[in-house]
Amino acid sequence: MSSVPPDLVEGAAPSEASPLPAESARRPLSRVAFVTGATLLAFVVVTGMALSTLVGTRMLAPSDLWGVVTRFSAEDDAHLILLHTRIPRTILAVLAGAALGAAGVVMQSLTRNPLAEPGILGVNAGSALAVAVAIAVFGVIQPAGYFLFALGGAASAGVLVLLLGGVRRGSDPVRLVLAGAALSVVLGALAQIVIVNADDLLFDRYRNWIVGSLQGRGLDVLIPTLVLIGVGVILALTLARSLDAVSLGDDASRALGVRPARVWTLAGTAVVLLSAGATAAAGPVAFIGLTAPHVARRWVGSDHRRMLPAAMLLGAGLVLVADVAGRVVALPGEVGVGIMAALIGGPVFVAIARHRRMALL
User: Fold this and answer.
1) Which residues contact 50 (CB under 8 A, 6 or more apart)?
2) How far is Cα 137 from Cα 283, in angstroms, rounded to an integer?
3) Cα dist. 31→10, 62, 301, 315 in Å?
4) Domains identified in the chain and CATH numbers
5) Of 58, 64, 290, 306, which is the most exposed, with the fewest CB atoms less than 10 Å away?
6) pLDDT class for 316, splitting at 50, 70, 90?
């Protein structure tokens, strides 16, 4: 019988197989600090949801939101805006952010790469190509139509990357990353070919989707997104203990009775469901799947049973903040949530990369 891996000995320094060595050694916050942080974050998310329902080209009052619950009227414009536009958009922002946060945690654990994010599986490129074809070839103009094509493209690209990365033969982070990068380049080039040969109107439609936006999303997009992301979240949470073992490396996970190939297949499926659902609903939204897992890891530690919910809550808050900020900075126009998320997450990415570089010196 093999000896217990040094990673599992209390107080021992993490081995090279352990992911994120500098951060895995960091102790989680105390119970008081954790409860305080969770309360503050929950307050931010709830406040963001309230602002998301009230802020926009037409500003609404809190009484309008309360009126939808207590005395809804189909003749009240404010009530119709809230029911058919603002409330579904707010819930979609929460779902997309939570999905990207959870997918980022799983990807970083599987690849043992602190800078991994859901786009590694090629879901963004697959969605972009599918939407480009939908607009240029089939003349799709409705968000619900974009959703169906984007979902199919993202899921197909994710599954293809998993197959090319050899997930059935076991875990190989390098092979998976290379397969995802190569497929993303190819699919991105094909999307450019389709769009470059389209007319200006079709190009404008594609441009509005590719920057990432929740504008115009309603109940027809909300319901399938909820189902898809819900299944992905349940699968990811079910695999939390196994991800703890797999993140230590293949030898350590086998010693703990975990089959790496099985975990990789199921976890890869969860990432595809989560990423495809979020991308299909909101378009490509960068940095959320990278930023939320890092903040969650520093906040609650590396236990996936705590890190997954924390990253989901952080991701939901970040997308809400980005979406609300995008509606405020360019009134009466709007800046896409993908652009605002990049503006918010970019500096965080630089700080993370700088911290990692300094930690390795």
Assistant:
1) 62, 65
2) 19
3) 20, 35, 12, 22
4) 25-360 (1.10.3470.10)
5) 58
6) very high
